[in-house]
């Protein structure tokens, strides 16, 4: 017998500033690493994106029409502080203040990510997260947000997918540098996150704050103990490093040993470990797309690029490699589809940390087709229905899940595949670099999800 979702379950969906807003240099916004880097797709795609900056009221009205209880969006650091650590841009503050008020007008709870892959270019030019000064810049930026929006935002997320920034650095500005550099950047972000969580608890005792990593179960390719050991270690590197620190304030012991073995332990200031220990998140938010599979490589194997799936980066390989999973179907973009893994992942997190959980991304990127003003995205409805069912099974198992956001509320720029790869309940009429008219259309999944929300998860 399925347990029902909580009566105040936060049904919603998500976007991020650089993938949805456009207006990359308007009203005083400074460039972020996403606006200037040559990444797939051409950065011109990010300069307009969905042009949400100029369609905000129209877009929020569409989310309200679906009956959203929450909307997860991110604030662009360089729209609020154009060079990252200098003057505050009043028009940046104004945009987000209006966006928050628009959500509240419809009874939609704003769920805000303060940093979603878009480091200000001004800070990147000063070494980015390699530079310890970026910690102070981040704390000050969040202090500005707490002062301006702490009265209206009750749920805060620190860093989106910090683990993917370390495992897939190229796409988001952390670069394909050495393991030593990646984990030095990682350490600075972890200290910055701890300081911000403490600042938030001090200034805004009534609000809740948590991390938003990408967490997914890691499977061994076979029951060979070497494969199981590889999956166990990769799980610690990919998942538990980030949640152990957010919840318990300590570095995961297996990852610490792995870094020591690779001469990649981060340089620290004397009170860094105490700072990490002093901070504890109020809930765990996480993004889930699919599970991963790894296999052990014979010890001493040359460090080589293994099977590149989107959750596994070759910078961690050498004694294990990513592998296909012949039991799972794949999306058109080569991502496994594993709803069962979603239940497994929820239960793994809940049993390890016993913290309230909210899913902040889950979705299917696909080639949607506009036909006579309609988009028949049954594949997306199937994906989401199957994942919601598994989430309901996890809730029935006893996991405390209080919300679910799909990726994405409205079509926006895929980090890796531009506008071709669509995720939204709302179709936006443009193709890569061709702006067309940016007209919004309700997909079949728009009406389906409206029914899911109205029935609190039935359908
Ligand atoms: C997650 C990011 C999102 C979005 C999503 C889809 O890692 O948090 O911002 O990018 O992946 O991936 P993609 O955009 O590469 O299709």
Automatic annotation (TrEMBL):
Family: Belongs to the glycosyl hydrolase 1 family.
One of the GO BP terms on file: carbohydrate catabolic process
Gene Ontology cellular component list: cytosol
UniProt GO MF annotations: beta-glucosidase activity
InterPro entries xref list: GH, GH_1_N_CS, Glyco_hydro_1, Glyco_hydro_1_AS
Enzyme active site: 361 (nucleophile)
Protein name as catalogued: 6-phospho-beta-glucosidase
PROSITE patterns: GLYCOSYL_HYDROL_F1_1, GLYCOSYL_HYDROL_F1_2
Gene3D superfamilies: Glycosidases (3.20.20.80)
Pfam families: Glyco_hydro_1 (PF00232)
Record flagged with keyword Hydrolase: yes
Keyword list, A-Z: Glycosidase, Hydrolase
């Amino acid at each position: 017998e399925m347990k029902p979702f909580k009566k105040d379950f936060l049904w919603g969906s998500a976007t991020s500033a650089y993938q949805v807003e456009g207006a990359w240099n308007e009203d005083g916004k400074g460039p972020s690493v996403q606006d200037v880097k040559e990444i797939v797709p051409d950065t011109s795609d990010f300069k307009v994106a969905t042009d949400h900056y100029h369609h905000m009221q129209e877009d929020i009205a569409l989310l309200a029409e679906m009956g959203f209880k929450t909307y997860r969006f991110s604030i662009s650091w360089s729209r609020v502080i154009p060079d990252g650590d200098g003057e505050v841009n009043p028009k940046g503050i104004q945009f987000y203040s209006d966006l928050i008020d628009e959500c509240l007008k419809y009874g939609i709870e704003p769920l805000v990510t303060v940093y979603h892959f878009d480091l200000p270019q001004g800070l990147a030019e000063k070494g980015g997260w390699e530079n310890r000064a970026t910690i102070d810049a981040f704390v000050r930026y969040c202090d500005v947000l707490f002062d301006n929006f702490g009265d209206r935002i009750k749920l805060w997320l620190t860093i989106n997918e910090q683990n993917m920034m370390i495992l897939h650095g190229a796409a988001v500005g952390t670069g394909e540098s050495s393991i030593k550099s990646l984990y030095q950047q990682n350490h600075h972000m972890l200290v910055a996150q701890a300081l911000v969580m403490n600042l938030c608890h001090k200034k805004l005792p009534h609000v809740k704050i948590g991390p938003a990593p990408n967490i997914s179960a890691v499977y061994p390719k076979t029951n060979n103990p070497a494969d199981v050991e590889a999956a166990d270690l990769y799980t610690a590197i990919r998942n538990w490093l980030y949640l152990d620190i957010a919840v318990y304030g300590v570095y995961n012991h297996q990852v610490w040993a792995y870094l020591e073995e690779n001469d990649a332990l981060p340089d620290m200031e004397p009170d860094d470990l105490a700072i990490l220990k002093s901070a504890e998140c109020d809930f765990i938010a996480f993004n889930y797309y699919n599970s991963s599979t790894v296999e052990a490589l014979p010890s001493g194997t040359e460090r080589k690029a293994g099977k590149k799936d989107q959750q596994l980066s070759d910078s961690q390989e050498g004694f294990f490699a990513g592998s296909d999973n012949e039991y799972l179907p794949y999306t058109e973009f080569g991502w496994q589809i594993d709803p069962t893994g979603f239940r497994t992942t929820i239960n793994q997190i809940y049993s390890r940390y016993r913290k309230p959980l909210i899913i902040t991304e889950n979705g299917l990127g696909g080639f949607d087709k506009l036909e006579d003003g309609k988009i028949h995205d049954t594949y997306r409805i199937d994906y989401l229905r199957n994942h919601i069912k598994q989430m309901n099974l996890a809730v029935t198992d006893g996991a405390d899940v209080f919300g679910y956001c799909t990726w994405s509320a409205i079509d926006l720029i895929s980090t890796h595949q531009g506008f071709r790869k669509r995720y939204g309940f709302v179709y936006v009429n443009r193709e890569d670099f061709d702006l067309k008219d940016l007209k919004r259309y309700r997909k079949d999944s728009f009406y389906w999800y409206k029914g899911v929300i109205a029935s609190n998860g039935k359908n």
